[in-house]
Amino acid sequence: MTGGSTPLGESPPSAKSAVIATDLSAASKTMIESETGLSCLDRIGVDRIHLVTVVPSNVHSGMPGMNFQKRRKEALRAYRSTIENAGFEVETHVVRGTPHRRINGIAESIAADLILVGSRGKSPLENRVIGSTARNLARTTVVPLLVDRIERGVDDPDPIRRHLFKRTLFATDFSENAERAFQAFEYLRHATEEVTLVHVESPKDDAGGEADPDERLADLADRLGDWGLDARTEVRRGDPAKEILAAETEYDPSTLLVGSRGRSRLRRLLLGSVSEEVVARATGNVFLVPPPRTA
């Protein structure tokens, strides 16, 4: 199946809204101006985009040498034009406060289907990939979050993976949260050509009591087949985060699809250690599907 095609007799994906968070940086500009990326959003059913920029509370337009308001208006005008020319309806939101909290708040208030945030690639001085706002969003979002990797260390960066969902690697521990993430293929399939299903057996896993992981992955592959997608499967053994990242290196997907696991009954949801490590250290894009707010 070719990504983006809809077989005869099959309904296109239902209309969705997306929040694109921008800090007016080169990474944000690259993410928004990617024709391929916008096309991928269109294919999965996004028709309305909410462009959100958050002004930190400690930044003021009257600060010496800074014309924030003018720069912000010019940038948002250009971004809006680019997105509208790609065929989307656009709304812009300029708010003040803590970036990840305000982005989450807007996403919830408009019932967004996903949040998209750009993140620069690895720094030569550090081993982590993800920026602070993207990391905080990953830890707290109750809306599916796509972290779009952008080149680091160049003046005119490119996306590290131009296609958002063309080659998707789905990592599963067969939990309820992993099943929730798997259901995202119901709409991602319209922009997907290749799927790799990976399960990592940890040394801590008990032997017996559960169905064979190869069989469980085969069942998932059959479900994808019903949606017109073929998938390869692999069971790995070792540390889950390390093996998932090793699988990313081996298969070179456009995007890693993972479910996060809430560890608290409080309103703020935290990632489990595996999801957090994957989001922080993956080379390419990561699509994180959180548990529902009531979890």
Automatic annotation (TrEMBL):
Record InterPro entries: Rossmann-like_a/b/a_fold, Universal_stress_UspA, UspA
Domain UspA: 47-147, 165-290
Name of the protein in question: UspA domain protein
CDD domains noted in UniProt: USP-like
Family indicated by similarity: Belongs to the universal stress protein A family.
Domain of life: Archaea
Annotated PANTHER family: STRESS RESPONSE PROTEIN NHAX (PTHR46268), UNIVERSAL STRESS PROTEIN UP12 (PTHR46268:SF6)
Ranges in coiled-coil conformation: none
Classification of source organism: Archaea, Methanobacteriati, Methanobacteriota, Stenosarchaea group, Halobacteria
